[in-house]
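Hi V.,

Quick status before I head out on leave. The structure for the redesign project is tokenized and pasted below; the design run finished overnight.
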């Protein structure tokens, strides 16, 4: 699968004639020092695209984690996980609590 199939059109990475490297990160759970350590890995720094798979923000430092990932701009594409979905539902008022022990 090419990067162009993974990314929305506004985040399209030109792939014609070159290989695109993709770093996949997941289960950050709002832990900024761990995210920073992963982002500092040479292979991640060299990646053209970072794909963040679910459970990104729920944890001790959700705002800081979101700001760090957003600061990477169009290099990052997101897939939300169950903890992310529960946080959005809580914020929208469609959920009264989050049963996930990580968020508590």
């Amino acid at each position: 699968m090419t990067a162009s199939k993974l990314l929305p059109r506004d985040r399209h990475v030109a792939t014609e004639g070159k290989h695109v490297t993709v770093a996949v990160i997941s289960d950050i759970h709002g832990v900024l020092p761990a995210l920073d350590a992963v982002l500092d890995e040479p292979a991640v720094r060299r990646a053209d695209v970072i794909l963040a798979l679910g459970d990104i923000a729920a944890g001790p430092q959700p705002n800081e984690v979101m700001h760090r990932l957003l600061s990477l701009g169009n290099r990052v594409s997101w897939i939300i996980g169950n903890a992310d979905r529960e946080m959005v539902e809580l914020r929208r008022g469609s959920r009264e609590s989050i049963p996930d022990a990580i968020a508590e």
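Above is the designed sequence. Residues 82-92 form the longest helix (11 residues).

G. will cover questions while I'm gone.

Best,
W.
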